[in-house]
Amino acid sequence: MYNNRMRYLILPFTRRWILSTIVVIIASLVMVRLGFWQLDRHNQRMDYINAVIAEVEDAPFQLTGAASDDAYSERIYHQVEIDGRFDFDHQVIIKNQFYNDALGYHLVTPFLIKGSNRAVLVDRGWVPPEALQSPEDMRKFDEPEITHVVARIAPEEKHTGDLPSPEQPQLMWYRVDVIGIQAQLPYEVLPYYVAMIPPEQVQTAPPYRNPPKFKLDPGPHYGYAMQWFLFAAALPLLYLWLLVRTIRSEKQEGAESAS
């Protein structure tokens, strides 16, 4: 029995089967590599999730317009508080924004920081498309009574291509292009924008606070990694089983022919 097992283990490396064996070995190694790649992606995702949780749970920053505020650009989803007033004359509209699966606009308004000559762009939230039939309609949603903003630092919005910022002032934008919007303002803004946090009570009127959602789902990468490792282990076993079955079948056919 022992000798039979050893013969079967040596079988894949005989001259007849060596090429197919090499192919199987290479395929298994590729699957192992794919498994480690998925594990790496899982670890990256977990690092991101832990970083987001740390930012959300950390104490809020008070933005003052000082140069030190610029360092917060990488602290996405961190809560900030700002005192000052909105400049509704220079607000812009962000197109193609969703709220509860409904398509509409976001209003992004410069907020002049108290005690500073700088401002920060604030995403005040979503409004339905039928509410903005003309530029003048934006002023229906002015909130001059707000002098204290509670918001989160928003991630930079991804866009396709390297389109330059428009040379002429624009009212409607496809994304919050901080650099482009800065170019049409008479004052300096912080190098990032913030989105106002929804109130605890149900929102009944626009603009509906609609900050970017952060996902804490680790995704399927860990499961994919386990699948690749399983495939890498199963392929050689399946290959060896097929070889043994082939050899036994050939022997049985030879014995039947001899008889």
Q: Would you kindly provide a written description of the structure presented here, covering whatever features stand out?
A:
- With 259 residues, this protein is an alpha/beta fold.
- 36% of the residues lie in helices and 22% in strands.
- The chain has 4 helices and 8 strands; from the N terminus they run H-H-E-E-E-E-E-E-E-H-E-H.
- The protein has helices spanning 2-10, 18-57, 178-182, 221-258, and strands spanning 61-63, 79-86, 92-99, 102-113, 118-127, 148-153, 172-173, 188-196.
- A 5-stranded mixed barrel has the order 2-4-5-8-6.
- Strand 3 and strand 4 form a beta hairpin.
- Helix 2 (18-57) packs antiparallel against helix 4.
- The radius of gyration is 31 Å and the shape is elongated.
- The model has no long low-confidence stretch (mean pLDDT 88).
